Amino acid sequence: MADKDKIDIKDVTGDVTGTFNPNTFKAGDDRFNPGNRIYVRSQTGYWQRVRKAMGWFFVALFVLLPWLRYDGRQAVLFDLEHQQFHIFGATIWPQDLTLLAWVFMIAAFALFFVTTFLGRVWCGYLCPQTVWTFLFIWFEEKLEGAANKRRKLDAAPWSGEKLARKGAKHLAWILLSLGTGLTFVAYFQDVFQLVPEFFTLQAGGWVIFWVLFFAACTYGNAGWMRAIMCIHMCPYARFQSAMFDKDTYIVGYDSKRGETRGARGRKADPKALGLGDCIDCDLCVQVCPTGIDIRDGLQYECINCGACVDACDQTMERMGYPKGLISYTTEHKLAHSETQVARPKLIGYGLVMVVMLGVFVYNAMSIMPMGLDILRDRNQLFRENSEGLIENTYTLKILNKTLNSQTYRLDVEGLPEYQWFGPREVTLKAGEIYTLPVSLAVDPFNLKRPTLDVQFVLKREGAAPDDSKGILRQPSKFISRFKMRCSRFRILRFHSKTLYQACCKA
To answer: Residue 9: its pLDDT value, please?
Structure first.
């Protein structure tokens, strides 16, 4: 290929900080093999206490919500069969699912805002993959021992003890996975019916399938895949890293302070030995759930869990050095520059998120407890009945979104001296959808235009005139063949009709 046909490339690796560690997981021969395991060392410290507190809060919320009752039913229930989504006192119907779009957009911009500000803290502290992975690791530690013992146990030949420990671990994993699958399905089916029917094998085939499916996903992802999910399969790592800038708070290693790394005695003077504060203990690597060495610099595999921060701080404390060799910092701070927190990108994400949240709240507060859809007769725009009146036919679909029976009164606005053919009062059960055909008739003499804008009015019984949630209006059209007629016959027919109506009343 000629030089003129080559694409110009730019070398962007010149400013990479840190020293490459060939012993980390990233340099392994097979990064996609679940058998190439990371033996995560247990770690305590401030950030791990924060992470555990947030994780347990998330797990407790996830498990307890389906068991809460509200007004005689499950407080949070997404009833797909009946197309009803109950969230405590609110019931959302398919007609209101635009709210779901707003929720997704708010969540997306919240993720953009948090990621730009604090990096991948979602991944490290609240992501279900991370939370359940640490739960599974906890069972490993209790049943198989610390990281070194687990490594020796895997390398040892099969024995009764190994079989017992491995069996107990996998049994605990399976039970935890099964509980997770049941809890997830409980958001879509009444939990007080789901649990006894599942364990007595009386549940439907699809219910059992989905419970076992989510249990298998939990077992595979948190038990075997772990770092593979975070590194190779999760899309968040890719687009979150694109939102980083030099003012984003990340877990970073101060190479200027730490290098040159090396072992030394606790009472030795590192400056006299020509060493930095890093003693090369590799604890930061041993406690990392994704198996990276944070000293290699910023890496997309880092989930900002803070385990290496706590491990390094404890080492610094034992050595008598200042903490913060590994810390939550920014690239500007590492370069000893000023960090700009309130930057335009962050402010923009925040403003958009606030505006979307306001729109969501407004739409949520505007949800009507009833619904009215109007369908015109498509076969015939209008017809002239035996009395000479122009008649339009409509199909009204009335929806009771409440959990109690309701009586509704129907009316129409925008028509002069109309006649209503059909029931004007209906009673609907909770969640019932009622289809009501009606016709409206108007004397063409009273029509000033061939098409009139009208509004059907649905009023709940007992609703006050100023009750915005008790009266619903939906627009429609009334169509006629209006022509200016001033003939003697037309006037005569009008007067004859008036005389006939007067005689009937008398």
So the answer is: 45
